Structure formats: structure tokens, C-alpha cells
Amino acid sequence: MQDRQDKQAIEHWWRTSIIDMSPGRISFRGKPIEELIGTVSFPQMIWFMVIGEMPSEGQAKLLEAALVSAVDHGPQAPSIAASRMAATCGLGLNNVMATSLNMLGDVHGGAGEQCAELYYWVSEHIENGKTREDAVNLGLARWREERGKIVSGFGHRFHKPVDPRAPRLMALVRSAAKDGFVTGQFADIGETIQDQLARDRGGRPLAMNIDGATAVIFCELGFPPPLARGVFCLSRSVGILAHAWEQMQQGGRNKGPMPPKFLPEYQPEE
Fold it and tell me: Which residue, among 172, 175, 206, 179, has the nearest Cα to 191 in the 3D structure?
């Protein structure tokens, strides 16, 4: 009796609907792995594993577009810089990637999640009968009260007045909406926020950046905001891997953020 109870306690310690695995058998969400290999794309598999159902072709293409768009932004991005520095410290690729991915926090890597929250706030106001313009103003007022003047998903320190990734992503969303794969509601919300932010700046244009555009996609696909950051991490891991591997081929040892002849400014305490 006790042995049976112990066995049940062990079996129930972890519970998952994601995978059913036993010797000689692997099944993901009820589908044998051998039926998925060669028939399902990687974006489809991501969706299937995380969401629990297979996406439509149009949904999978939008997810793939978001994944492709955010793979890299050069060594000036902290996560990419970290990958190259870590590679010169003698770490293996897995350690390099872990080091870099752990830098994707609220400021670098979290803007898509935050922007998705804003979009959903606006959507709730629209569902409660507000016009889109009024809902946007209410959403922005809440944002500024809770998080300050910088609105995640809009503006870019390099790409002014247009982030080249955003228009292409938005065009794909509009095409998917035309084909009935998504509603296009969040594309409208994102562009209305962009217009309102420009008006707030006296008419000066402000870019919708990669986070604002991918947040549109994630909301159109029905993803909860935290998944926006998770999917961004999957995407950026590709750039992290590429830069780490390139740095390993180039060589170099113990490279810091600047050449050795340049030293940080010393400021004595007053």
C-alpha cells in the first residue's frame, strides 16, 4: 500500500500536458514526435508547445515574421555585446547564450511585453464602449501614471523617424487581417498610439519600433504579454549564437567593453 502511494506521489510530483514520454515513445500534446518531424515548421512547433494547439498557416507566418525581425541589433545591444565578451572568456556556447539571455530584462528585452500590456489596456476600454482615440488616451494616461513618460514600443535611439522593421511587420499584419487570420484591431491601436504620441510631441514623428510592431503581432495572435518577452528571447538567441560563434572564430581573449588603452573615467567621491 505504501509503495503504491509513494509511486503515485512521485508520478504526480510534476504534472504536464506538454509531453508524454516513456521508453520508445515520445508524444507532444497527444501527437507522436514522428508525425511532427518533417511536417511541422519550427514556428508552428513553438506555438504548438506553448499555446497547446496548432496554429493556422497565417498565424504561423506572422509568428515567424516576428521571430525573424528581432534576431539581432548589433554589438551595441547589451545582450549581443555580452555574447561576444563572454565568448572571449573561454565559455562554451551554452554558457555564452545563458549569460546573454540573462541580460534581457525590463529595459533591454522587456519592452514588447510592456507594450502588449498597453495595447490590451486600450482594447479593454474599446470593449467597454470607448472610441479608439479615447481608449488610447486613457491607456496612455494610465501608462504615464504608472510608468512615466517613455512609452515602450515607440521611439528609437538609432532609427529616426522610422524603424525599418516596423512598416514591414505592420504590412504583414494588415495582409493577415485581410485574409481573416487576425482581426487587425491591435494594428489599429498601435498606429493610433503612434499618431497620438506624435501629436504630443508637437507633430514630430515618432517611430513605432520593433517592440511596438511585434507587440501588435503577439496581441493579434492572442498571446498574453509575458509571452512577448519569452518569444523575443527565442528570437534574440539566434543573434546571440551567431555573434558568439563569430567571435570564437575571430579569437581574442578576455575582451572587455572597450579597448585596453581606454579606461573608464575615475570620479572620486565628493
Answer: 206
20 grid coordinates: 508524454
Amino acid type, 2? Q
Distance in angstroms (rounded) separating the CA atoms of residues 117 and 127? 15
User: What's the pLDDT score for residue 11?
Assistant: 79
Res 1 pLDDT > 80: no
Residue 63 has pLDDT above 90, yes or no: yes
Where do the domains of the chain lie? 78-105+235-250, 111-230
Report how far residue 194's alpha carbon sits from residue 184's, in angstroms, rounded to the nearest whole number.
Answer: 16
CATH assignment of 111-230, given 1.10.230.10, 2.60.40.10, 3.10.450.50, 1.10.357.10?
A: 1.10.230.10
- Burial profile 88-97: b = 16 or more Cβ within 10 angstroms, e = fewer: beebeeeebb
Q: What does the alpha-carbon distance between residue 230 and residue 96 come to, in Å, rounded to a whole number?
A: 18
Cis peptide before 55 (omega within 30 of 0): no
DSSP letter string, 36-72: HTTTS-HHHHHHHHHHSSPPPHHHHHHHHHHHHHTS-
Percentage of the chain surpassing pLDDT 70?
100
Instruction: Read off the pLDDT of each residue in 223-245 and give the average, rounded to a whole number.
Output: 97
Alpha carbons 247 and 26: distance in angstroms, whole number: 37
Three-state secondary structure call for residue 208: strand
Model confidence at 8, pLDDT cuts 50, 70, 90, reads: confident
